[in-house]
Design brief:
Residues 163-175 have a biased composition (Low complexity). By secondary structure, the protein is low in regular secondary structure. 10% of the residues lie in helices and 9% in strands.
Length: 375
């Protein structure tokens, strides 16, 4: 009996292993009229350069170290769009007085939004290379005649500075547009006084803040030497108007690196600090960013972000400030700006320091907070 496959012996083999053809296709050709879809962007959960684990390997133990350098911003500049921008604020840009026929006469009451939002990030942008090539600013010299600020840029309201909708009535012969003055902004510190001396004694304190709990009480924490106050020789050299990458530590003979900035700011470590300055109308809250403690990088990055916030017209035109106060802020703003781009960003909170911009350190303050000392 013959083989059952004898009927197929005359057919050629499907694959001849002894024949190598250069025309053999490397892939199966697509069918006629096939449509191809473009490849989409890589998934957000798998960024380029992230560590990959083969299938079947056990998960890494927690906590694990991220393959990315969390403080790479201390080594190389970033694009300006990488800096964490606050959502909603519109800068207040002082300008020269408008002519009487072009001034706004909006008599409607204005309301500052009550909502607030905050975005945090691990990086910040660098406008000037390390070290700063812009040079030091000229010392504060108040001219005999301050610029007369009487107009403001019509922009969206600053969502970070809500205040009451009530406004102060202004006489018709005033140089300020009617309805411009507002009540004291609600986010200002209750004990903040723009002026010092005899005139400031007539302001009443409406509320008293309760002391913070013992976990974050400044009196029970030991500061890192780089943050301690020194009247004559602070260990940190920093202009609070500039980016944190411009700071220097006296004990280092080089710019600070990522491992230098990873030290905890207090002992024992803390995850929250509240800072105030007599000349600032706002508190500065510092929080741990992705770790169990506040690092030096967290501290200086968030300090700069808080001082770099633009103010709103409610911070500029209110019952607490008079024309002389606004002229001083405008002069400080113009002295700080080194380019037209900076001027377009408007008056910022750091301008409320009024020339006291040199870092001197922190000291334990009232109610468990920290007081920022400057010169």
């Amino acid at each position: 009996m013959g083989s059952p496959w004898a009927a197929w012996d005359d057919m050629p083999p499907l694959v001849d292993p002894n024949v190598v053809s250069s025309q053999t296709p490397r892939s199966i050709p697509p069918p006629p009229n096939a449509a191809f879809m473009p490849s989409g962007p890589p998934p957000r959960t798998a960024p380029a350069g992230s560590q990959q684990y083969p299938w079947g390997t056990p998960w890494p133990q927690y906590p694990f170290t991220s393959p990315q350098d969390p403080y790479a911003a201390w080594r190389q500049p970033h694009d300006t769009t990488a800096y964490p921008q606050q959502s909603g604020p519109s800068p207040y840009i002082p300008r020269q007085p408008l002519r009487p026929e072009t001034r706004s006469h909006d008599h409607s009451r204005r309301t500052d939004p009550q909502s607030s939002s905050r975005k945090r990030s691990n990086s910040f942008h660098i406008r000037f290379p390390w070290p700063s090539e812009g040079g030091d600013l000229s010392p504060l010299e108040i001219p005999s005649r301050m610029p007369d600020v009487q107009a403001f840029t019509p922009r969206a309201l600053d969502m970070h500075t809500p205040s009451s909708s009530l406004s102060r009535s202004v006489s018709s012969n005033s140089s300020i547009p009617p309805g411009m003055y507002h009540e004291r902004p609600q986010l200002w510190r209750h004990d903040f006084k723009f002026k010092s001396g005899f005139a400031s004694m007539f302001r009443n304190k409406s509320t008293t803040m309760r002391p913070l709990n013992g976990v974050i009480d400044s009196a029970k924490l030991d500061l890192h030497p780089f943050l301690r106050y020194s009247k004559s020789r602070p260990l940190t050299i920093y202009d609070l108007r500039r980016e944190p990458l411009t700071l220097m530590f006296r004990e280092l003979e080089r710019p600070p690196l990522a491992n230098d900035m990873d030290h905890a700011v207090t002992r024992p470590p803390t995850q929250y600090m509240r800072i105030y300055h007599p000349r600032l109308a706002w508190y500065i809250d510092i929080r741990a960013n992705g770790a169990s403690y506040i690092s030096l990088a967290d501290f200086f990055q968030q300090l700069f972000a808080a001082l770099n916030k633009p103010i709103s017209k409610y911070d500029y035109y209110n019952n607490e400030l008079d024309d002389e106060d606004r002229n001083i802020l405008t002069h400080i703003y113009l002295n700080r700006c080194r380019s037209q781009e900076e001027k377009q960003e408007g008056v910022k909170r750091v301008d409320f320091l009024r020339g006291k911009i040199e870092w001197m350190g922190l000291v334990a303050g009232k109610n468990g907070m920290w007081r920022l000392k400057t010169a």
